[in-house]
Design goal:
The structure holds two protein chains of two kinds.
Chain A lengths: L1 E10 L3 E11 L4 E5 L6 H8 L7 E6 L2 E2 L5 H10 E5 L10 H12 L3 H14 L15 H13 L5 E5 L7 H16 L3 E6 L2 H7 L2 E6 L2 E6 L7
Parallel strand pairs in A: 3-8, 3-9, 6-7, 7-8
Antiparallel strand pairs in A: 1-2, 1-4, 4-5, 9-10
Helix pairs in contact in A: 3-4, 3-5, 5-6
Chain B lengths: L1 H17 L1 H37 L3 E5 L5 H14 L3 E7 L1 H12 L3 H10 L7 E6 L4 H11 L6 E5 L1 H45 L2 H9 L4 H41 L5 H7 L1 H25 L5
Antiparallel strand pairs in B: 1-3, 1-4, 2-3
Helix pairs in contact in B: 1-9, 2-7, 2-9, 2-11, 7-11, 9-10, 9-11
The chains are: A alpha/beta, B alpha+beta.
């Protein structure tokens, strides 16, 4: 489903963040990408979303090269990938309900479907009571649950979570991981970037380890070893 | 398409009501260039009125020789009107009418009346008073009368005596127009920069939100649309404010301006040009609002 082939990303003048990175992620996999801060995890995600271009190499999403996509096609690609960020990236002037409904509206879904699906996802993420609140009226955990709700409401093929638990306490961390697991159980792909050893070890899923921009390990049932 | 448009309208409405402070600032700064454009329009009306009042007092007078018959003078008048597109009007003043006008004007002045009595006969010549559209056209008309086919009939053309006044006025009026245009242009440019800067600050507030919209796959128009419609709403409100403010100002300033420019009522001018003024105001308000929204959001859509 997702292929990185000999991907290198160098920022001028000569800072190489990713160095000849290759791996493949199949549909339905739960893959953790681990590494210290600055290892290249976030750059890898930005490249997958087409937010940046690699210096060399190919990135394929469903056999299509992302590098060859026009800006409008990249927007269509982004609709198929649910992304969760450490800093949430919520729409501050929209309510909880509107934040989730927005991504469905972007995709062109009908109003009835939006109403039904948003109510459903609010229920799943435990945010029904906060539907009319604005993001700045939510706790950190609630904001991250909202980010998860927004990422999964369109039933994307893949969810990319970039350090989603970085700002959360253990209880909220558990909540977010459990939501990602639920999504994975429906047969979807999850890419989970983190430097939280405890969570990675508990997951017991495939782990790709990055160090100084290189893939140093790729284990089917991996652990956080650095 | 229609669904998307409805959604963009709804987002714009929600965002507008949730960003009251920023929108109030945007409306306030939009009022400035609109009022400036309106003032320039009204000032142009005022200066045109003053110019035409002064122009109406200027003319070229062709005095005909003693023995020229009235029908020949009238023939010259008709010919002038036929051949010269610059001539606005021509008034024929007969010898008798000239004498009567003199008496009417100076009947209370015994010196003048005594001098007239001493002359014994009617000393005045029949004449044509010629008005042109523009002051600079007097010279051309004067030259035509002095050297054209009617020069034999004409005693003198009273242009050279008025030449300096006419030329001075012509220069002043063209300088006022040029200066007004340049000053207006500079002020307008400054006002537009202020508008763009204020709207930029307002859109900067939504920078992270625009980035988030791009990250979830929203198209450029889906993001830009609500900002453009908000710009439109701000522009429309600014237009309504300006229409009321300029109307009220014209009403209260009218008597004072009439002292400076007798016969010109700025309020009547405002009312009789209400359509054009409203068009200028709505054009500037909505146009600037939309343009600012369009251009400024663009810089954040490059993700």
């Amino acid at each position: 489903m997702i292929k990185f082939q000999n991907v290198t990303k160098t920022y001028p003048p000569d800072t190489t963040v990713l160095n000849n990175v290759s791996f493949e992620i199949k549909l339905g996999e739960f893959v953790s990408i681990v590494g210290k801060s600055g290892a290249g995890k976030t750059t890898l995600i930005r490249l997958l979303l087409g937010l940046e271009k690699p210096t060399s190499g190919q990135i394929l999403f469903k056999e299509t090269n992302i590098l060859h996509k026009k800006r409008s096609q990249l927007q269509e690609l982004r609709q198929k990938i649910g992304v969760i960020y450490q800093d949430y990236k919520l729409l501050g002037h929209k309510t909880v309900y509107e934040n989730i409904a927005y991504v469905m509206a972007v995709k062109g879904e009908k109003d009835e479907k939006i109403k039904k699906e948003v109510a459903n996802i609010l229920e799943i993420t435990g945010l029904s009571a906060k539907a009319d609140n604005f993001p700045n009226e939510l706790s950190g955990g609630e904001q991250q649950r909202l980010a998860v709700a927004r990422a999964i409401v369109n039933q994307p093929d893949v969810i990319v979570a970039d350090e989603p638990t970085g700002n959360l306490d253990p209880y909220n961390t558990y909540e977010v991981i459990s939501l990602l697991n639920k999504f994975h159980e429906t047969g979807k792909t999850v890419i989970f970037a983190s430097h939280n050893k405890e969570i990675i070890n508990k997951l017991g899923k495939r782990v790709i380890t990055l160090e100084e921009g290189k893939v140093i390990r790729d284990d089917k049932k991996g652990r956080f070893i650095l | 398409m229609l669904t998307n448009f409805k959604r963009i309208l709804k987002f714009a409405g929600n965002d507008f009501s949730r960003n009251r402070g920023n929108n109030a600032a945007a409306i306030f700064v939009l009022v400035i260039p609109i009022l400036l454009a309106t003032s320039l329009f009204l000032f142009q009306g005022l200066s045109q009125s003053v110019i035409s009042q002064i122009q109406s007092k200027m003319d070229v007078t062709a005095f005909f020789k003693e023995d020229v018959a009235e029908e020949d003078i009238l023939a010259v008048r008709d010919e002038l009107l036929r051949v010269s597109s610059e001539v606005k009007s021509i008034q024929y003043v007969s010898k008798e009418k000239a004498l009567q006008d003199f008496i009417d004007r100076h009947k209370d002045n015994p010196d003048f009346m005594q001098a007239l009595a001493e002359v014994g006969v009617n000393p005045f010549l029949a004449s044509l008073n010629i008005l042109t559209d523009q002051p600079h056209q007097y010279e051309k008309v004067s030259a035509f009368l002095e050297s054209g086919p009617f020069s034999e009939l004409i005693e003198k053309v009273d242009y050279s005596q008025k030449k300096d006044t006419i030329e001075k006025f012509s220069n002043i009026s063209s300088s006022i127009n040029k200066f007004g245009f340049i000053l207006g242009g500079v002020l307008f440019l400054i006002a537009i920069l202020v508008v763009f800067n204020t709207i930029k600050l307002s859109i900067d507030n939504s920078k992270d939100e625009i980035t988030a919209m791009r990250l979830v796959g929203a198209s450029n128009w889906f993001i830009r649309g609500p900002f453009i419609i908000q710009g439109m709403i701000c522009g429309f409100i600014a237009f309504l404010i300006c229409l009321i403010v300029s109307g009220v100002a014209a009403y209260f300033l009218s008597p004072k301006i009439e002292i400076l420019a007798p016969g010109f009522s700025i309020f009547s001018y405002f009312i009789s040009n209400l359509g054009i003024i409203a068009l200028i105001q709505i054009g500037f308000g909505v146009g600037l609002g939309v343009l600012a929204g369009f251009i400024l959001v663009r810089s954040y859509l490059k993700v």
